[in-house]
Amino acid sequence: MKKQTRSQARETVFSALFRLDDLTGIDEILADILEENPQCETNFGYISAVCHGVVEKDEELSKEISLRLKKGWTIGRISKSASIILKMAIYEMKYVEDVPPRVAINEAVELAKKYGTETDAGFVNGLLGNVFKDLSNVSGI
Fold it and tell me: pTM of the prediction?
């Protein structure tokens, strides 16, 4: 079986969170993904931890995004893809110790280029840069 890279694992996390709705829980989605893509087993601990973390901390992550939006903007105006990518990256920056913040930002920008709108990559990069600065000031990252 081919091993999955961490970048591919992030795509899996994005896919799982994108599928999430009121009718299907994250555990059911993760089980389906693992069945469809056995190579995910390589990084399943990471995939599961980030998916569960983003779901559990959704309100906090949404607030982090909202605090950095331009006046008059709400999180509801952001594309679903960009919102999920931002939440994933902010979660990694704050809670996943083995992922350097700059890596989380770069990976988020790449996901935004692949799955977002034409302007999402620049938006994601700018907002996450501000999160990084704020986190650096608080924790000395």
Answer: 0.92
Name residue, tokens 């999402």. 120
Round to whole Å and give the CA distance between 85 and 83: 6
- Domain limits, the chain: 1-56, 57-141
pLDDT score of 1:
59
Q: What is the CATH number of domain 57-141?
A: 1.10.940.10
* Coil, strand or helix at 25: coil
Measured between alpha carbons, how far is 138 from 107 in angstroms, rounded to an integer? 23
In the chain, the N- to C-terminal Cα span, in Å, equals 37
Residues of the chain with pLDDT under 70: 1, 139-141
Residue 24 sits at φ, ψ, to 5 deg, of -125, 125
